[in-house]
Amino acid sequence: MAPAPAPLVGVVGAYGVVGAAPLAEPLAEPLAEPLAEPLAEPLWSFYIIQNKGATYAGVSPDPVKRLRKHNGELSGGAKYTQSRGPGWTHVCLVHGFQTKNQALQFEWAVKHVPPRDAGGLPNRLKKLFTVLNKAHWTSKAPESAGIPLILEWKIARPPELLLLTLPPYIQEKQLV
């Protein structure tokens, strides 16, 4: 009977064991419990920001850091926002997307509600409410009711939106 192969030692990372090499002598005790599952993807958020009458919508796992990029405090903001200078502030955030893909599908859907060329904050927010009330944001998106979202306001909810309703599976938080 052949001898058992030498145990391997390595660093357990998000993608399994990294840098494994055989041990010269077996360990008296196992190192650490292996991860049951790979580390979860960070939760993504959709956000709407405004500055001097202009608006911008995007997605990020860290909307606060992303806002700093839009304002030019950190490198990496979108050309559109950087061309309009600092002063961008959050209007609202939608939290709870389980994957980056879900957040991107939602962003695409909001940006493609007709009429696409209608600008301004009221129109941007009406488009947001339109998508929040859809059964599926896009043809390939999962069922909306299966993803519990939270709409978090950073400003007072505009008067023109007071009569608009949200589905029961979406929580609304007013943080002003």
Account of the 3D structure:
This protein has four helices and seven strands. With 176 residues, the chain is of the alpha+beta class. The chain has two domains: 1-39, no CATH class; 44-174, no CATH class. Strands 4-3-5-6-7 form a five-stranded mixed beta sheet. α3 (100-111) crosses α4 (121-132). The longest helix is centred in the middle third of the chain and has 12 residues, at 100-111.
Keywords for this structure?
single chain; 176 residues; alpha+beta; five-stranded mixed sheet; two-stranded antiparallel ribbon; 4 helices; 7 strands
Q: In terms of topology, how is this protein built?
A:
Blueprint: E1 8-13, E2 16-22, E3 44-51, E4 54-60, H1 63-70, H2 79-82, E5 89-97, H3 100-111, H4 121-132, E6 149-153, E7 170-174
Parallel strand pairs: 6-7
Antiparallel strand pairs: 1-2, 3-4, 3-5, 5-6
Helix pairs in contact: 3-4
